[in-house]
# Entry
Amino acid sequence: MATRDRTQQHPLWTTPAVEALRAAPHTKVSEIDTKATPGFAGNKTDGEYMLEERGAVLSALQEMLYANGRSGDKRSVLLILQGMDTAGKGGMVRHVIGQVDPQGVDHTAFGVPTPEEKRHHYLWRINKALPRGGQLGVFDRSHYEDVLVVRVHNLVPPEVWGGRYQEINQFERELVYNGTTLVKVAMFVSLGEQKRRLAERLARRDKHWKYNPDDVTERALWPQYQEAYQAMLDRTSTDHAPWYVVPCDRKWYSRLAVTELMIDALSRLELDWPSAEYDIEVEKQRLARS
Ligand code: AMP
Ligand code: MG
# Structure
C-alpha cells in the first residue's frame, strides 16, 4: 500500500522515534539529557527540512483518518502533551498539529479547573473533551495534572492522588479498547533552558502574554515536580498506553520526534481510503450526460 512507503523511516533516524523515546522501567527523570536528540543523527537543518517532509505524510494519514470517520469508523488518535511551563506544548500544537487539516483536529487545553469542573470528578472534563471517531484529539495538559500539580501542591490528600494512577490506567485501557490510540508525550526541558525561555518571554513584548509570575514560583518546586513526573512514568506507562520521553531543549528535534510518533500511531491503524458507496461508472456516465 502506498502509505507504507511514505511512512518508512528516514536513514537519519538510526533508531525509530517510537523505540528511542519509549519510557523504560529504568528511565530516570533526573538523568534525562534534555539537549539530546535520541535516535536522530541529523542536525537542526536536517530536522527542520524533514519536519516539512514528514508533516506532509502526517497530513495525508490524518486526512485518511478523517475520511474513515466520515464513513463511520469509530477510531481516533489522541495526543497527550505533558510538560513543565516553557517545555513547548503550545509550539508543538502549532508546528506539528498545525501541519494537518484543522477540520479533523479536536484541541483542548486544560487549565486550573473552573468552579464547575471542581464540582465533578477530575475525569469529567477529560471525558467531555475526548475525540470522536475520525478525529485527531490533542490535549495540552490532561488528567495527568491531577497527579502532577495536584500532588506537588497537596491540593488533595496523598491517599486521594495516590489512587489515581490505577484509576488513570483503567480509564485509558477503556479508551484504547474503544478505539482511541493514545500518544502520550512527556516533554522535558532543563531548569536552565526554562530560565532562558522565561527571560525571553519577559524581554519580548510579543511574548509577555505567555509569562506568568507563578512560573517562577514553581521553579522552586522543580525537585518535587521531577519526583511527580517520575511516579507518573513509573506507574502509568503501560503496554496499552506507553509514555514517550521527549527531550525538548531543541525544539526542532522535539517537533520532528512527535511528528514521527504521530505518523507511527496513524500508520498502525492501517487506514485506506474509504470505498465509494455508489457505482463509480454509473456516476461517471450520469455526470457526462448532465
Ligand atoms: P498554562 O498551560 O500555562 O495555560 O497553565 C495552566 C495551568 O493550569 C498550569 O499551571 C497547570 O498546572 C494548571 N492546572 C491544570 N490542570 C490543573 C488541575 N487539575 N489542578 C490544578 N491546576 C491545574
Ligand atoms: Mg504557562
Notes: The longest helix spans residues 44-70.
